[in-house]
Each structure stands twice: as C-alpha cells, then as structure tokens.
Specification:
Length: 658
C-alpha cells in the first residue's frame, strides 16, 4: 500500500528556521540505538527453515515491461496521447536509454546476491526519505471486532477496569507471539504452498522509526533488557511498564492489568499533559528531527526516548472514545484507531495497540519496517488468544486493583523550549483531521462465498466495483493502485497491481449504457481474468512499477532523465487516484490508510466470508459537488457491488435455462 510519490506543498511543511537546525552531523548524533541491516538468521530454526530456499527478486524483461506498461496506460489516454506515449516508450526500449539502464539493473541484482536489488532502494525512497507526517500518509490501522463479551457497564468502566483487562490480554498474547519470533519457533508463512520471506518479523517488536534528515533511520533492539517492558500512553503521559521480572520470567496477565490500572489512576489524577511529544511525532519529519535533536541535549530525554524505542510495543489507553456502540460507532472507532487525538500516540513506534474506555480496541502500524501481511498475522493470532483469556477472566475484571510496582513515568526536560513547535504541530494535526473525510460500508451477503457462486473471484469483483463506483462519480476511470505481496522472494515486499485495465474500463463504460445481463457478465469475467493474470505476474516479480522504479534509480549523477518519466502517461498512470489494498480478516471491523492523490481516495477493504467491508479516506474538497466525498464513494461502491451481483445472477440464470 506504499509507493513513491510527490506532493505539492502542504500546511505541515517545516519552516526554513527549523530546517536549518538539521545537519548531516545531527543525523549521525541522533543514533541512540543499534541499527540492524537485513540479515539471515540461523536456518536451523523452524521460522527460518525455508529462508535459504527463497528465490531472489528477478529483473523483468524490458520489452515485456514496456508492453505491459502501454497496456496499462491505454484506458487513461486519448488516441493522440497514446500515440505519443507509444513513440516515447519505443524509443526508450529499443536502442534507447532503457537498454543500458536494464544492463545496470541486472548487474545490481548480481551484486546483491544476499538480498534483493530493490530492498535498499525501496526502504529508503518509499519510506525513510519521505518528509511527510507518518500518521496520515504512511501509517495504517486495524479496528478490531469487540474482544470482550462483557458489556461496558459502570462497574467495569470505573477506573478503566474493562479497558485495562482488554489491554493486558492483548499485550500478553502479543508477547507470546514475540517469543515465537525470538526462539525461532514461528511457523513460516505459506501462500499457495510457497514459503514467504520471514525477514520482516524481527523488525516488529522492540523497534522504532527515528527522525533524521535527509532520511530517517530505524532502530531495532535485540539485547535482552529490551524485551522487558512496554510503553503505555494515557492523556499524553508516557509510562514504562515492566513485562518481565528481574529474573527474566514474564509477568502474568493479571499483573499487567493491575499495572495498567495504576497508569489510568495516575494519569487521570494528573490530568491531560500540558506539553506532549505526541504532536511532534505526528509532524513532518524535518520538524520532528530538529525537535528531537533539541530534546537530546538532555541526558534525561535521551534516556526516555531510548526507553520508548526499546519497548516491545506501545499501548494507548485513550481516556475518551466514540459514544456510539456496535455497528453505529464502527466508522468513528476506525478514525480513532487511525489517528487519535494527536497527543496520546507516539507515531514512530512500529506496533501501537489502542484500547478505548469501553473495551473496543485496534492497532496502528508504522509502515517503514513492515507491510500488512506480518502485522495481519500477528493480530490474527493474538486476537483469538486474547478473546479466550478475557472470557476465562470475566469474573475477575470487576475486582481488579491497581499496582504500580512495575510502572515508571517517563520524565521530559525542557519541553517548554519546544512549546511553540509542539503547538504548531498540534494545530497542523488538527487541520489534517478536519481536512480528511472517512466512511465505512459493510456490504452484507456479498462476501467471498457469495461472490464465488457468481463465477467471479472475490478480489477482482471488489476491484471492479470500485472502478465502477469511481466511473459513476467522475465519468472516467482512475489510475488505480492495489498492493501485491512479493514476499515469495528474499526480502520481497510489494508490487503494484494496476487494477485499471482496458477490460475494466470497457466494463465501467458499458454499465453506463444499461447493458444486457449476459453482455455485462461477459465483460465482468473478462476484466476479472485480466486482473487475475496481471496480479499473478506481479506476485512473480514481473510487475511494471518496481521495474521502472529500478531503471530510474540506475541513472548516474549528471545523466538526463529519460523522456518516458516526463511523459504525460507516466505521471497520469502513477497518480493513484484510487489507492487500494485487500486484507481479509474475520477479526477486523475495518482497516485502512490515507489517500495518495490530493483529489483521490484511499480504500482498505476486506472481502470476508459473509460480507465485504470497505474503509474510504479522502480529503474534503471545497470545490467538490459532493459535500462528503468519502460517504458518496462508499455508497457508490456498495451500489456497484449490488448491481454487479444482480447482473451476474441474471446472466447465470438465463444461461442455465438455455
């Protein structure tokens, strides 16, 4: 769900005076933790037993990439524009700059024999050099279905008992998952019988993104003390909570709940923090880097920051949450999991679990270190464990009492020096919140099982519905990004499925003419087959976008940029007006991320067994004819799903009568 992009100047961008505080020397000085490069853990462990057998990411054939590229841009261009692009691509591919860049890329692949030709470039260019705030433009969230069967009654809400019981169950289950990573007993991921790269898992826990300029770094701590605590946030106060006794034994879930309860008591007694680090971590990266350098002038602050970075994970015990419960509050809960209030978060932390006062919970992930698949597995395994633990301890929840013996509040010195920067960061955060719209729609009775009965694969069906929804709103098809995992390769991450195709455009345009069911059904199946075919190519490392990205980065200093990258088709086809990603999970009520193009949509969706759930994010545009663009698009997706299902049923019924 992440890709290289450019944005026009945004209100959060830092001032020249703040940027002036950042130097190369400062970036080095900010290194307070061990940096870990990609490396291969011992192959004798279960988790890494198949790592050595993983193939390396290939360099696609230049001619094939150019043919696929031309096919992908065709529905976005006029006839004249396409002819111009055709000439540009031909000049690049045959006897042009492309051939030399291809040779360089093949050489790079040979040199990166212990990794991937793409990994280092992608980590830097797609994530660490990005100067945008991570919270709206990089992070992603999961909003969990309710874990506890206990109602949010006054006795359980009092003092945060239910909230802390849920949080303790999540942490305990997460630490069990972590222990499998640590001892190598985690079973390798398998997709369609093929082993997947496991290199992302050691980066999940005890890790943090570190702001620096011109590029951030990442810190991953593997020394034993790093496993012994978590960070807990409440009202902007940060606390270190021990998870292990001094002898190394893990503390019980009951002990954790009591410790969390003491955090709630202490933070609520102190009230909202006056100045918090939360808004700084949600600021643009240069502002945060400069502010962190000022903080690090104090040894106390250095120690506190290191405590945050080394923590296994972070728990955010929000003191307020949406008033609506059940399905009615799902959209509001999703927003709270995505960005919160900007204060009670540390957005650089890789794993943050958010628990609301009523016991609802979710997850916020920093994207630089891991894509969705590893954290999806983490949550998919821990949530049933946490749910069972809560069921077994229902009677004990109302009798929880606080215990502060393993709790230490982090102390920050000199935050008043950064008061103006913090206030500006919070103001910019609030502007982003107000400027974003979101909507959630659950299309009941049209999950994967029902869609398969229509003779169409679920993911292409959902992608076509989004194409149709966009077409009905705008009268044209959009450049569309869908994330595809390439973890079948060593250190693989993602490729872009260009979901907008000649076939999908033909289907969307035909639907505007009220086609006969059989005609529409044929177009659906043709578009779905094209989507399946290109998705398979992407999963095999034969996609368009990462290859073009690698060729571009193979240029040497002083060399002119090939015309293919300045051609209208390239900018138009990679603007990603519709940015999508599919993570099916029966444990989530929704999941999502931010839009990419200023006038586009971000859509995270789950095609589950009995329903398909879409979460839409976008900017509020004063010039738009739709006051709430997100809701309009979400409703259009639902209607498209229903219309497509009806046409497919009619076509199949008519065919069966012949």
């Amino acid at each position: 769900m992440r890709f290289v992009k450019q944005r026009e100047q945004a209100p959060w961008q830092t001032s020249a005076s703040v940027r002036g505080r950042i130097t190369a020397e400062m970036a080095v000085a900010l290194g307070t933790a061990e940096r870990r490069e990609w490396s291969g853990p011992p192959p004798e462990s279960v988790a890494w037993s198949k790592q050595a057998s993983l193939p390396r990411l290939p360099v696609p054939d230049l001619g094939q990439t150019c043919v696929r590229y031309l096919r992908s841009v065709r529905p976005l261009l006029s006839d004249n524009e396409y002819e111009q692009t055709l000439a540009v691509v031909a000049a690049f591919a045959v006897g042009g700059r492309g051939e030399e860049l291809q040779r360089r890329l093949i050489t790079r692949r040979a040199e990166k024999h212990h990794s991937s030709w793409l990994a280092e470039w992608w980590n830097q260019r797609a994530y660490l050099t990005d100067r945008e705030p991570v919270v709206f433009f990089v992070s992603y969230f999961y909003s969990f279905k309710r874990l506890s069967a206990l109602p949010p009654s006054p006795p359980l809400l009092a003092g945060g008992r239910l909230q802390c019981a849920v949080a303790a169950a999540i942490v305990d289950a997460a630490l069990t998952f972590k222990s499998k990573i640590d001892d190598g007993s985690l079973e390798p991921d398998m997709v369609g019988g093929a082993p997947q790269c496991m290199s992302a898992y050691p980066f999940l826990f005890n890790s943090c993104r570190i702001p620096a300029s011109p590029a951030d770094t990442v810190a991953v701590h593997h020394d034993p003390p790093a496993s012994a605590h978590i960070i807990v946030a409440r009202r902007g106060h940060f606390y270190s909570v021990a998870t292990h006794a001094s002898c190394g034994k893990r503390l019980s879930q009951q002990h954790l709940a009591a410790a969390l309860l003491s955090v709630v008591s202490a933070a609520d007694g102190a009230g909202d923090v006056n100045l918090s680090l939360g808004p700084l971590t949600g600021a643009d990266r240069d502002t945060w880097a400069a502010a962190r350098a000022i903080l690090c002038e104090s040894d106390t602050n250095k120690s506190a920051l290191l405590t945050v970075e080394k923590a296994a994970l972070m728990v955010c015990l929000d003191h307020q949450g949406p008033s609506e419960v059940g399905e009615e509050g799902a959209a509001d809960r999703s927003r709270q999991m995505w960005h919160g209030d900007g204060v009670n978060r540390f957005y650089d932390k890789t794993l943050q679990f958010i628990v609301l006062p009523d016991g609802n919970a979710g997850f916020l992930g920093e994207h630089a270190l891991a894509d969705g698949a590893p954290t999806l597995r983490l949550c998919s395994e821990l949530l049933p464990v946490a749910r069972r633990a809560l069921l077994a301890s229902q009677t004990a929840v109302s009798h929880l009492t606080p215990s502060s013996s393993s709790v230490v509040e982090l102390v920050w010195e000199g935050l008043d020096r950064l008061g103006g920067v913090i206030a500006e960061a919070k103001t910019n955060f609030d502007v982003e919140v107000a400027g974003h719209q979101t909507a959630r729609v659950a299309v009941s009775a049209l999950g994967s099982e029902a869609i398969k009965k229509l003779g169409v694969a679920p993911d292409p069906f959902c992608q076509l519905a989004m194409q149709l929804a966009f077409f009905r709103m705008h009268g044209r098809v959009p450049a569309t990004y869908e994330a595809c995992s390439t973890r079948r390769f060593l250190h693989g991450r993602t490729e872009t499925i260009r979901s907008c195709s000649i076939e999908s455009a033909a289907f969307a345009r035909a639907m505007a003419t009220s086609p006969q069911p059989k005609q529409a059904y044929d177009l659906v199946r043709q578009a779905a087959e094209q989507h399946r075919r290109y998705s398979a190519q992407c999963a095999q490392g034969m996609g368009i976008d990462r290859h073009l990205f690698g060729l571009k980065l193979s240029l040497r200093p002083g060399e002119d940029m090939p015309t293919i990258y300045s051609d209208k088709a390239f900018g138009l086809s990679s603007s990603w007006e519709l940015s999508t990603s599919h993570l099916p999970s029966e444990n989530f009520e929704s999941w999502g991320f931010g839009e990419v193009a200023a006038e586009g949509f971000g859509t995270g969706y789950s095609c589950n067994k009995t329903e398909s759930v879409f979460f839409v994010s976008c900017r509020a545009l004063p010039s738009s004819k739709w006051p709430h663009r997100a809701s309009t698009f979400a409703c259009a997706i639902e209607q498209a799903m229903l219309d497509m299902a009806n046409l497919c049923r009619l076509a199949r019924t008519s065919s069966s009568k012949l």
